[in-house]
Amino acid sequence: MSKPVEEIRIGVYVCHCGTNIAGMVDVKNVADFASRLPGVTVSREYKYMCSDPGQELIRQDIKEHRLNRIVVASCSPLLHEETFRAATAKGGLNPFFFHLVNIREHDSWVHENRQDATAKANALVHAAVERVRSHKALTKKQVPVNPAVLVVGGGIAGIHAALTLANAGKKVYLVEREPTIGGHMAKFDKTFPTLDCAACILTPKMSSVKSHKNITLWSYSEVSRIEGYVGNFEVTVRRQPRYVREDLCVGCMECIDACVFKEAKFPNEFDEGLGKRKPIYVPFPQATPKVAVIDPDRCLNVKTGKCKKSCVASCDRGAIDFTQKPEDRQIKVGAVVVATGFKAFDAKRSPQYGYGVYPNVYTSLEVERLVNASGPTSGEVVLRDGRHPKTVGIIHCVGSREEHTNRWCSRVCCMYSLKLAHLVKEHSGAEVFNFYIDMRTPGKSFEEFYQKLLKEGVHFVRGKVAEVNDWVLDPSEQGKLVIRVEDTLLGTVRRIPVDMVVLGVGLEPHADAQEVRRLFNISCGTEGFFLERHPKLAPVNTFTDGIFLAGCCQGPKDIPDTVAQAGAAAAEALALIDSGHVELEPNTAYIVEEECSGCKSCVPLCPYKAISYVEDKKKAVINEALCKGCGTCVGACPSSSIKQNLFEDEQVFSEIRGVLADV
Amino acid sequence: MAGAMLNLIMENQTSTNGTASGFEPRIVAFFCNWCTYTAADLAGVSRLKYAANVRVVRVMCSGRVDPQFILDAFAKGADGVLIGGCHPGDCHYIEGNYKLLRRVRLLHRMLRDMGIEDDRFRLEWISAAEGEKVKTVINDMVEKVRKLGPLQLPQRFRDGDKELEGEQLKAEAAHV
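C-alpha cells for the assembled complex are given below, as produced in the milestone run.
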C-alpha cells in the first residue's frame, strides 16, 4: 500500500529586518529568485518577519495557499527559530515543517558587496527550499524537572540566588569551596558609593542561608562531577575534611586557644595574609558556618601525627575528629546556578609597580582589610614597617586596560579606588593621590561620589603610571616610594614621592575557570569569563540549558549588578523548575532496523551510552531518552542505517545541493 | 534573442566572475551549532567583514559530519570544504569533535589520492567566543582556494566519462 504523494507547497519569507538585511541584501531579488524555485507556492519579502503582522502573514498563507512547508530567511536560528516554529504551528502545520535561513548574522552583517551578499542569500534560500521538502512532522519530548537547585559559589551572588530560590520554597544546595561563605564582599570594609558597611548588609544574609530550612549549605566542598541534562542533573559534591564536625562544633573557639601553636603565625587568607592565624581557625568572626577548620598543611597532627592534640582535649563537645576523610555526596537537581566569582589580578604580573619588591606597595584588597575595623590592624592604616603613611598614591587600572595583562576594563576599580581614597584619608589623614587613565563612574550616585572626593581634597593625576621605585633623585624623596607618571593634563612627567602605594587591581577569571567550564559544559569568552547565551537577551543563560550564571564569573561587576544578576538567574531557574517539565529538541537519532548490519561501529562512539547492541536480533538500538542528538553515530554508520531527526542525510545532502546550485 | 543570450552571459559573468582573476571559489562549510555557528553569529553581531564565498550548513555537532557530505560537496562543484567544531575538550557533546578528527585524518589521505589539494579541505576549532577567528579562517581559506583555482569536479567527471566512452568506442572498433 503506497501513501499518496503529498504535493509540496512551500512558502518563502524574506525579512528586511529594517535595513539590517535589506541594506546589504537585495531582498526583492531573493524573493523573486525563490518564487521561481520548484515547489515554492508563495514568496514574499516583509519588513519585520518576527513582528506580529509578519508572523500573521505566515499563518494566513498556510490557510489560504494550503502551504505545507515554510522557509523564513532572516536572522540566526539561535534567536528566532522558536518564534517561527510557533507561527508555523499557529497556521495549523507541524512546527518542524519549517526551516530558518540566516541571512543577517551570516550574510548582510558580514559582507560589503551587495551583489555577493545577495547571491549568498539566494544560495542559502535555495538550500532551505531543497531541505524543507524532506522535513517530517516531529513532536517535542517532555521530561519532568527535578525541583531542587544547585548553587555553586557562596559569594554575594550565590547567597542571593540561593535565598531567592529557597524563599520561593525550592530546595537549594549551596556549595562553597572555602570554609565559609561570604566571598570577596565579606572582606570589604565599606561599599561604594553609599559607604554602607559591607559586613552589616552581608552577614544577615549569610545567617539566613545557614538557618534557612530549604538550604543545605556545604562549605569547604566542590562539585566534582555533573551528569544528566536540563531538569535532571546528577551531581557529585566532594566535601573536604575540615577535621571538625559541623554538627557538633558551636564555634566557641576554645580549640583555637588550646592549639599547641601558642602564637598565630600563619598568614590568614581572609586578611590577605596581613593578619595571622593558627592551624585551627575560624576565618573571621562572622564566618558561616561558624565552625572551626583545621588547615591540613599546617596542623602538626595531620602532617606528622605527632602532636599533643590539646585541641581535642579542649573541646567538651568532642567535635574535633582527625579521622575525617573526603566525602562524596550525590544529589539530583533540575537547575544549576554557577556563581563562582572572580580572582583579583596578581599585582606581581605588573612588575613596574614594585608589588612584592617594596613592602609598602599594597593591593586594594589588602587595603580593604587594613581600613576594616575587624581587620588585622583594627582599621588603623599602618604600613608593614610600622609607620603611618603621610602620603598615599592609588594607581588605577592595574591589570586592566593593558595590552600586556588584561585588556578589559574591570568596571569596579575606579569606584573602589575612590572609596579607598576616602577611607584612607579618613582613617589616616594622609594626603592621597589617585592616578587614573579615565575616570569611569557610570552608575547611580557614582559621579556624585567622584565630585565629593574632589571637594574632599584628594588629588587626581590623569596619566598611566610608568613605574614605582625607591631611587632618590632629590632629598625630598629620601625613604619614599617614587611614582613616575606622565600627567597628561599638565603635559609633563612628574615624580611624586609617597609613603604608601595602593594598586587598584582588576578582576579576572579564576585560575581554574577552564576546568569549571568543562565540568558544567559551558563556554568561556576569550578573556576567560563564562559566556552567556546572548549578551543582551539571555545574559544569565548559558549554551547548556538548565545552567545559569550569576556574578563576576560572567564578567566584572559591582555588588548591585551582581545581586540583580543573581536574582535574574534565580528567576530563570524558577521559571524552569516551576513549569514542571522541559521540552527537548526532537533531534535524536534512531536506527532503521532492517538496514542495520549489526557491525557495532556506533556502540562505542556514543558518549552517553545511549546505543546498545541486542544480541538475539544482532542489531543496535538507541535509547531515545539518553540520546542528546549530536549525530556522531549517524555520521559514522557505514550502512547509513542511523538517522537523526532534523538532520537526516537527505536533508543535509539537499542543503549541499542547494548552496552549490547556480544562482 | 541574441540580447537575452548576452544578458544571460553577462549575468553569469557577474555572478561567477566577481574578481579580476575571474574565479570566485565556492566553499561549503559545516559548522557545529554550539561553537562555530555561534562564533559566526558573533562575527555578524560584531560586524566583522569577510569574504562572501562560504555557505554554511548547520549541524548540531561536528561529529555529525559524514565523510559523504564532504565528498558530495566536492562532487557537486564545491571548490573547498570547511568544517568548524568546538576546541578539543570543549565539545558540547563531550567528544564528537574527536570522532570527527579521526575521519578527517583518513579523508585527507583519500582526497589527496583523488588529486584534491589539502588546502581545499580544512578543519578548524573555533569556539563561540572566536568571531574574529571565523573571519580570519574564512578569508585565509578563500585566498588559498582562489590561488588553487577551480576544482570543477563535475566537469572532470564528465571529461572522464567521455574519455572512457572514447576508449570503449575505440576498443569496439578495433574488435570489429
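Chain A touches chain B through 54 residues (CB under 8 Å). Residues 195 and 419 of chain A are 8 Å apart (CA to CA). Further analysis is deferred to the final report.
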